[in-house]
Write a structure and sequence with these properties.
The structure holds 2 protein chains of 2 kinds. By secondary structure, chain A is an all-alpha fold. Helices cover about 85% and strands about 0% of the residues of chain A. The two termini of chain A are about 30 Å apart. Chain A is built from 8 helices and no strands. Chain A has one domain. Chain B has one domain: 3-Layer(aba) Sandwich (Rossmann fold), CATH 3.40.50.300. In chain B, strands 5-6-7-3-8-9 form a 6-stranded mixed β-sheet, with helices on both faces. A 3-stranded antiparallel β-sheet of chain B has the order 2-1-4, with helices on one face. The two termini of chain B are about 35 Å apart. Classes of the chains: A mainly alpha, B alpha/beta. At the A-B interface, helix 1 and helix 4 of A face helix 2 of B.
Chain lengths: ~220, ~240
């Protein structure tokens, strides 16, 4: 229980700090809207009618991914900047609790941005995204993305070129999650049932377990010099 | 220290290298329970690296550190509960208030009555009136006072003070001195690193000089005045 309470404390601290500054949230939201606006104008020239459905899942997840990278860049950079990571490492906390705390808060911020993005996306692309099954896929994809992203964010926060390094390392590793999320989203927009896209959401589920499991084993080595 | 008693802190043949740059070159040091050690040394002597290893923030390249007989790297998180650190960084969240910062750390340290303890430490560092203002609005001295409150919040048995006077105004330095006096009187084990000999000698039981990654001199405080310490320091840290 103490372990869970400490994870909760880290999430609470991140949420309180973010509610006060809204730095990360506003940057993620504005950037995601801009990505959708740019895609909308770009596709408007060549894609119309039913074919919008073919590009919508990709555009949606690219917006989520870019917004997520902004959030991940700040996840450990904010700890590192004030030397606060040392305070966390010094506390009598299993270091994996730091990983899970940061992962949960990153996923939480991403999910809030994504919840606000769905109506924006619906308005721009004219595709109805209000579907509980889609929410399930978005949650699975976001958790997987935050799972691997948090480990890499901790690694790159120790470097000087962290803003550049994180996307370069993250995108290839997170590719299976993004592919599965796009495929599952596309399937739902095409009217397929959950059973018909089971392979994709099960893959997402597997990565949601796999990435945190790997982080659990390696995180202590990543955060300590 | 009796033959049976374990030292509070023990470093044996401790080395640390960053790439090809050696920061520590075989440090042997013991600090007894309840002892106050002032560790002097010029910039780059390895003082901060040594403190980070003792605090288990950095792994040594070679040798070993033991806290009450246990290696920090091999012990569980509980060992860290015995250590309080004041370093160059405040280890505080600028966007949170002192109250929120301390409440957060109280939860990490599993304090039983966090509200009461937070009241005590905020009073101790004179920041009770500013407890609901974001830390980013504080002066350097106030931040350092809050850093002291954070470091003593969980009442650690071992205090590591890495250049704690850096950037403090007179009032904050006096306040820090008062806190250190209290720590020294409460039979806590303290290591204070500084290159200010006067501040270091004020309260210590024993002094050591670290130079180029090695303990170049160590001895008891008794019988050591400031002038003879200065002379000793100059002779020990003289460039080769």
């Amino acid at each position: 229980m103490s372990y869970l309470r400490k994870i909760g404390a880290i999430v609470w601290k991140d949420v309180v700090a973010e509610l006060r500054t809204k730095e990360m949230f506003s940057a993620m939201f504005v950037f995601a809207v801009l990505v959708i606006v740019v895609f909308n104008f770009a596709f408007d020239l060549r894609v119309s009618g039913e074919r919008v459905r073919e590009v919508a899942p990709g555009a949606l997840w690219v917006a989520f991914t870019f917004a997520g990278i902004l959030g991940l860049n700040r996840a450990f950079a904010s700890e590192k900047d004030g030397g606060c990571l040392e305070g966390l490492l010094l506390a009598p906390v299993d270091h994996t609790a730091i990983y899970f705390g940061k992962m949960i808060s990153t996923a939480l911020f991403m999910l809030v941005v994504e919840a606000l993005m769905l109506p924006v996306f619906t308005a721009f692309f004219g595709v109805n995204l209000f579907d509980l099954r889609l929410v399930f896929i978005v949650v699975l994809g976001t958790v997987g993305f935050a799972g691997v992203g948090t480990v890499l964010s901790a690694m790159t926060a120790q470097t000087r070129a962290r803003e550049v390094l994180l996307p370069i390392l993250l995108l290839p590793v997170a590719a299976p999650v993004l592919i599965a999320a796009v495929k599952a989203t596309g399937g739902l927009l095409d009217g397929l049932t959950m059973a018909e896209i089971a392979a994709w959401w099960r893959l997402l589920l597997a990565f949601d377990v796999l990435f945190p499991a790997v982080a659990f084993m390696t995180f202590d080595y990543i955060v300590k010099e | 220290m009796s033959g049976q008693e374990l030292p509070a802190i023990e470093a044996r043949k401790l080395t640390k290298a960053f790439g090809h740059q050696a920061a520590l070159r075989g440090v042997d040091l013991q600090v007894a329970e309840g002892e106050f050690l002032a560790l002097f040394g010029p910039n780059g002597a390895g003082k901060t690296t040594l403190m980070r290893i003792v605090a288990s923030l950095t792994r040594p390249t070679g040798g070993a550190v033991r806290i009450r007989g246990v290696e920090p790297g091999k012990a569980g998180p509980a060992l860290r509960k015995q250590i309080g650190l004041i370093s160059h960084n405040s280890l505080l969240y600028a966007d949170l208030t002192p109250d929120e910062n301390l409440r957060f750390f109280a939860r990490l340290y599993d304090l039983e009555d966090p509200a009461a303890r937070i009241d005590v430490v905020l009073d101790q560092v004179g920041l009770a009136a500013r407890r609901r203002d974001p830390v980013r609005t504080f002066s350097r001295g106030m931040v350092q006072r809050l850093a002291i409150a954070r470091a003593i919040l969980h009442d650690p048995a071992i205090m590591l003070l890495d250049e704690p006077y850096t950037g403090l105004d007179l009032q904050a330095a006096d306040m820090l001195r008062a806190v250190l006096e209290e720590l020294a009187a409460s039979n806590r084990t303290v290591i204070l690193t500084t290159h200010n000999l006067e501040q270091g000698l004020e309260m210590c039981d024993r002094a050591a000089i670290l130079n180029r990654g090695r303990v170049a001199w160590e001895g008891p405080r008794a019988g050591l005045d400031l002038e003879s310490m200065k002379e000793l320091y100059r002779s020990v840290t003289r460039p080769a």
